[in-house]
Amino acid sequence: MLGVVAIFAVWANRQLLDTHYWTNTSTKMLENGPIREQLSGYLTDQLYANVDVAGELRGELPSELKPLAAPAAGALRGLVEKGVNFALERPRVQALWRTANEAAHAQFVKLIEDRSEVVRLPGGGQVVIDLRPLLREAASRVGAPTSVVEKIPPNVAELHVVKSNNLRTAQSAVNLLRSLAIILPLLVYLLFGLAVYLARGRRRQTLISVGAAFIGAALAVLVVRGVAKHAVVNSLATTASVKPAIEAAYTIGTSVLSDIAWSTILAGIVIILAGLLAGPTRAATSVRRFLAPYLRERPDLSYGAGALLLALLFLWGPIVATRTFTGVIIITVLGFFGLYMLRRQTTLEFPNEQAHFPLRPTDR
User: Fold this and answer.
1) For residue 196, is pLDDT > 70?
2) Separation CA 96–CA 249 (nearest Å)
3) N or C: at which end does the chain have fewer Cβ atoms within 10 angstroms?
């Protein structure tokens, strides 16, 4: 149970307080077609709601065509929205989106972590994603007149992330979340380690149970993620047209949760295999007997082979933990510790076992 809560705490902590995860998630959202369509519609609405497009067109048209300005502005709305959608696919516009999210996240973390500066920040403690530069760039790319682009008000296209009246609640929640994201995983590992230590005479079985608990906690998280998706999408989707965008946003926004869960499953599988390899079954005993002389006589080859396998794992990078510095360090330490314990067990179990293949040229 603590493992399930710990996985959710770690995920939420990364999504809320890690700028790298925040900006990567927002970039993936903009690259999604349904989300980009909704954003282009929002930006087009902002443009038409805050700039007199018909009036600007009237000023650009000859006198005999001025009566057509209003119908032309309405007819151009669909084309403008499609043009904005196309502009949002461009690297320069996406860079503006990423910059806006990075700035908003920096402001969010500053508000959450430094209470003394909250009252001196603009907006009285609000966090907004400023999309005005992105709107200006998109409008220019679809051919909007310079006069239209220049008349976009400064407070247009602002997405409010945190409002000042919710700041205290957000601070308390995030500070609690930060503590849980550190304490809960350590507590889970400590309790599992204590369980194995106390299980004298049945430590191997307990180790297998620990691996199964890892897998069970991760599967529970994945099930909750899938069930919650329907509830969240149905509660937020006011119309059928926005449902694909909300589903995509939920999937992308919880992708880190899925990565953590799958990492936990992989860890559980490794733990179970370690418990089985140390067991009394005929297959496990045969493997240990075969490896015993090589592990005992050639520790250089044993640890070298272990290092090679770890290097191949990190190059493959099947989970996030194998692609981060902290994850690589933890996996490396645990891998070599497991190899040390295997060498110790096989040496005690088969002290006189002879190698089937020569260990050194002099052994021939």
Assistant:
1) yes
2) 19
3) C
